[in-house]
Amino acid sequence: MAQHFIVIGAGIVGISAGLYLQRDGHRVTVIDERDPGDGTSKGNASIIAIESCIPMATPGVAWDVPGYLSDPMGPLAIRWSYLPKIAPWLIRFIAASKPDRVEEISIALRSLMLQALGAHKTLLKETGEPEILRETGWLAIFETDKKFQSYQWDLDIQRRRGVKFDIIPAEEVRQFEPSLEPIIRHAVYYPENAYAANNYRLVKLLAADFARRGGVILKEKVTGFDIGLNGPTHVNTASGKHAADSVVVAAGAWSKQLTRQLGHKVPLDTERGYHVTLPNAGRMPRMPLYSSDHSFVITPLDVGLRFAGTVELGGLEAAPDYRRAEILMKHGRRLFGNLDETGRSDWMGFRPSMPDSLPVISRGTRWANTYFGYGHGHIGLTLGPLTGRLIADLAAGRDPGLDMRPFRIDRFQRVHLGW
Ligand SMILES: Cc1cc2nc3c(=O)[nH]c(=O)nc-3n(C[C@H](O)[C@H](O)[C@H](O)COP(=O)(O)OP(=O)(O)OC[C@H]3O[C@@H](n4cnc5c(N)ncnc54)[C@H](O)[C@@H]3O)c2cc1C
User: Fold this and answer.
1) Distance from Cα 12 to the centre of ligand 1, integer Å
2) What pLDDT, in 10s, does the model give residues 60-83?
3) How many CB atoms lie within 10 A of CB 342?
4) Which atom of ligand 1 is nearest to the CA of 381?
5) What residue owns the CA closest to ligand 1's atom 44?
6) In this predicted model, what pLDDT tens digit does every residue of 248-297 receive, in sequence order?
7) Cα–Cα separations (whole angstroms), residue 404 to 28, 56, 245, 248
8) Taking a C-beta distance cutoff of 8 angstroms, is the pair 361, 390 a contact?
9) What domains, with CATH codes, occur in the chain?
């Protein structure tokens, strides 16, 4: 039966949920305090990372935590002042690093990835600009033999999950990607990956399509809900009350408090990340690159060359530390030689991250008219459209074509005895 859905959040996830719910005949209102795409979806690395099936926490991560605290400029850093708040999340993060959990998590991630690109294409077809999607693959590059040797562990998991890749012989790397300085010793090409020529415009295009189909987008801050006998009846904002039959929380890194008001506790936190974009870089790789040694991504966007990555556990309130963006540039200059930095822009965004690296894509178990789609961490652009489709499937009672248990909202509320 057609309903009125209110989706909170106009990032890649919320807008995609709106579009898929519309396809089922529902009336949809999206509410966001900012303009569509102006949250974390604005400045990511723009990769549709189909190869990504390895969680952030891997065996041995517990031994790395002291290093995260002592090196504020490392690829993963924890702010001391935030340690007491993030400690429960870190404990779960370390628990998720056990080999058998990593295996389970990688299976769950791969099940999503196999459907992720299809969902992008389905939505993009309707926007009039499907060519924004570039199916080039991406290249993981290694400057040291040591890093490449340790990467064999990653390749083994990827093999087990059926990820496609080609190891590029050292002498062919320069030919494969001529824009790089001759400092790369190894490379692995992943043909399944794609990217958007402009991640921000991608969300804007989808939002415009949503509005064209009768969707309403309100620029208001959601403060809470009126709860009736059968769940939320109204979504409350600073400007008033909006009646809804069902509610979708897709508020990215800001979803935790809203979720709590709807009866669930989730260990959501944020992995802050940075980017530098050079509109006139003067060098452009022919496809996105991943620096395995320093854990960041380089993407040839239509707005310039973007260096994006790093993880900072520092919460939603602390001011950005743009020295972290400068570190990305330092590596970028080494990889590409002279880069023109005129017009450079730096940015910081809040990845919405669950400690087990799995998103929440779920119907509420407290109230049947609540749905949750967030916590995608490093892969929210990749999985945004699919998450929208899965939420619509859950609402329609359709078979989503994959095991949804790993993504349940209440998975941390239960003792873990397998899914
Ligand atoms: C440096 C960096 C690089 C990344 N690179 C990639 C990549 O290459 N590929 C990839 O797949 N992912 C990448 N990501 C991750 C990706 O950007 C995120 O996972 C994704 O954007 C999350 O989308 P979202 O819709 O859940 O959240 P958001 O885009 O943050 O949207 C949430 C929205 O909710 C709104 N909101 C919150 N609270 C309220 C409220 N109370 N009332 C009203 N509105 C509210 C916010 O204003 C916001 O617009 C990267 C992230 C970073 C930081």
Assistant:
1) 7
2) 998 988 888 888 888 899 999 999
3) 9
4) 11
5) 32
6) 999 999 999 999 999 999 999 999 999 999 999 999 999 999 999 999 99
7) 24, 20, 23, 17
8) yes
9) 4-407 (3.50.50.60)
